[in-house]
Write the structure tokens for this entry.
Amino acid sequence: MNALIVIPAAVVAVGAAWWLFRPKASQAPARKEEPMQSWTVTSVSRETPSAVSFEVDSSLDFQAGQFVLLRPSKDMPWRAYSFSRAPGQPLRLTVKKVEGGAVSTYITERLAAGDKLDVKGPFGQFVLPSGIGHALLLAGGSGITPMLAFVHDLAAKGWPTKVTLVFANRSKSEQILRAELDELASKSDGKLTIIHVLDDGSEGVKGPMTPDVVATVLEGVAAPDVVALCGPTGMMESCHAEVSKRFATAKILEEKFTAVVASVGADAIAHEVEVVDEGKSKTFAVREGETVLQGARRAKVNLSSGCESGVCGTCRVKMLRGQIETPDESCLTAEERAEGYALVCIGKVKAPCGFEPKPE
Ligand SMILES: Cc1cc2nc3c(=O)[nH]c(=O)nc-3n(C[C@H](O)[C@H](O)[C@H](O)COP(=O)(O)OP(=O)(O)OC[C@H]3O[C@@H](n4cnc5c(N)ncnc54)[C@H](O)[C@@H]3O)c2cc1C
């Protein structure tokens, strides 16, 4: 008799708990996302007048070529930074100041040992496949960071892959971690070859990396299995064009540090986009051809963003009406895709729409 009473009571209790804590329509479905971490900076070293490296107290597991999102405080935006060492080495990030840039200026001018950083990640698919014979790495400026992770990783593994690294800079004083690269090359038993390109012509090939210069640099470089590109947009475009012409069978990997901002004229067709955040509604115009994030920035509407290349998912939003066309949804879970989530950093609109920003 007692059992008959206890069982329905338990069922009622479970049912009530489910009702109280049931997923609400506006909540993000569970993601396999690492929780936010807090790192402490253990040391900061100046690499060039505009770049610093810093080490942190974390032992995060990652793959060479990946990045994290970090912010030095809650009131600063998230930014992506790649590891400049391999997994298993003390964690290090290397940041170059972007003139007028919020986070890079803070890091290169004010970051000190003992400071805390909010961190999310690791993220990214800019990873060298294993079992390849020859990799061609083309880096410009701060684009050397993931390449450093690759070469440290290959050195630690006894150089299973031969590497040709092309490193382009304006002048010698801007070459980040040059001495470390020289040491890696000198201990590689000929497996790592470095070609320097300097705009001032003081060493190696004279830059900048225009299509003609890229063609000269690649003259005599053996056909690679994989080509990895990371640098300023113009350099990446020249390299991509020349590499695909010259090494048609090579797999090309690209990491874009700067969001590609479409230049769309004020006369382009614009659509009204509504953002509903905690019940408050704002509208702004997004022009056809530009990303929703670009339109929001122009209208001074603040939307969360991270890598700005559709990889980290920080900028995901839930559609309430209409559509944001997201060219690559691979960072969204199947559940999120089914529920109509979109990414504003790479997503574009062709009609009016409305969305809620991702709940934190
Ligand atoms: C996957 C990935 C990995 C990366 N790894 C590294 C790395 O290892 N090392 C590294 O140094 N960088 C890296 N970056 C670049 C880094 O994420 C930042 O983009 C860079 O540090 C600039 O950030 P910031 O906050 O200083 O500049 P921002 O404040 O974003 O400014 C960038 C530029 O935009 C201009 N700007 C800013 N706001 C406005 C506005 N309202 N109107 C007009 N112009 C404006 C600024 O003047 C500046 O020129 C990486 C990027 C990605 C996507």
In short: The CA atoms of residues 22 and 219 lie 62 Å apart. The helical segments are 2-21, 102-110, 144-156, 178-186, 211-218, 233-246, 292-298, 334-338. The longest helix spans residues 2-21. Residues 1-7, 18-30 have pLDDT under 50 and may be disordered.
